[in-house]
Design a protein that fits this description.
322 residues, alpha+beta, Rhomboid-like fold, Immunoglobulin-like, four-stranded mixed β-sheet, 9 helices, 20% strand, elongated
Length: 322
């Protein structure tokens, strides 16, 4: 199953996610030029991986000596890959899931979280190598650990978002799978294959994923603390957004308003009808931004809405006509 895209609107442009993907491809092109091989399986490739990849033996020596020689390659290894399919797979997952995490965390926090996920993944791989008495000289490369952290965070923050997935099962089709189901299945797959290895650092994937879950849980708990605080929030013009799209549907009995306002806290939604004008307000879950919108209803409606629903960034308000 390959994720194609997610049905999860965002409110900002993911500059950091775009940059991470670009840097990964640039580094891969550099690897191909230096090693003169697109599959990166020759002697020159191994030398490059040993120099810039994460080598458990070097990491262990750095811990014992108190130096940074084995620690710095953790970060360079995050941008190196062992082949074309390796980088394409990682970048596909980062493209699908990374933008919404950046939108929720913010640009700088997302970058720091990404690097932290990669570090946790490398340490998890190191612990597994030591525990299984495996070869400490085999280098580990790839963005998989950091991307796995992004997946773990996505599963916690957007569990109900739909992932449009390409499925191969006697035929080729696409299905819409809830993020929690898709990513939990992916995690179980990593756990099942971990004991077999096969040249893949599955414990790096598992460690990064668990790190993403932990950070997302901490993030959500901090948001809940802020929500419970009774302080009045004031927003500057830069922090006040208009709904990304505002549409209306009028029938003989009802009026439905659809407002695209991703990332808002459902409890913060305020709806008010004054002189046939609908006013909508909503605050994002991290309290960093506020949406304000209004729409001309064109017909008379009862001021109290029949229903208010919010799913995947779409606010649906239903009024009964007078």
């Amino acid at each position: 199953m390959f994720p194609l895209y997610d049905e999860n609107p965002r409110s900002s442009r993911p500059y950091i996610n775009y940059s991470l993907i670009a840097v990964n491809f640039i580094v891969f092109i550099w690897e191909v030029i230096v090693t003169r091989s697109i599959f990166l399986n020759n002697i020159s490739s191994m030398r490059l991986m040993l120099e810039y990849g994460f080598v458990p033996a070097r990491f262990l020596a750095s811990i014992q000596e108190g130096s940074l020689d084995g620690i710095l390659p953790i970060f360079s290894s995050m941008f190196m890959h062992g082949g074309i399919f390796h980088i394409l797979g990682n970048m596909l997952f980062l493209w699908v899931f990374g933008d919404n995490i950046e939108d929720r965390f913010g640009h700088l926090k997302y970058l720091l979280a990404y690097l932290m996920f990669g570090f946790i993944a490398a340490v998890s791989h190191f612990v597994w190598i030591i525990a299984t008495n495996d070869n400490l000289m085999i280098p580990a490369v790839g963005a998989s650990g950091a991307v796995s952290g992004v997946l773990g965070a996505y599963m916690m923050i957007f569990p109900k978002a739909k992932i449009v997935t390409l499925v191969f099962f006697f035929f080729v089709t696409t299905v819409r799978i809830p993020a929690f189901t898709y990513l939990f299945m992916w995690f179980i797959y990593q756990v099942i294959l971990a004991p077999f290895g096969g040249g893949v650092a599955y414990l790096a994937h598992i460690g990064g994923f668990v790190g993403g879950i932990a950070l997302a849980a901490l993030y959500k708990s901090l948001i809940n603390i802020k929500i419970r605080q009774p302080t009045k929030m004031y927003y500057s013009e830069a922090q006040i957004l208009k709904p990304l799209r505002l549409e209306g549907i009028i029938t003989s009995n009802y009026v439905e308003i659809l407002a695209y306002m991703p990332g808002i806290d459902f409890k913060s939604i305020k709806v008010n009808v004054v002189d046939d004008i609908l006013y909508i307000e909503g605050v994002t879950e991290d309290r960093a931004k506020k949406y304000e919108g209004r729409a001309l209803l064109r017909v008379k409606v009862y001021e109290i809405p029949e229903s208010i629903d919010y799913l995947n960034g779409v606010l649906k308000i239903k009024f009964k006509r007078i």
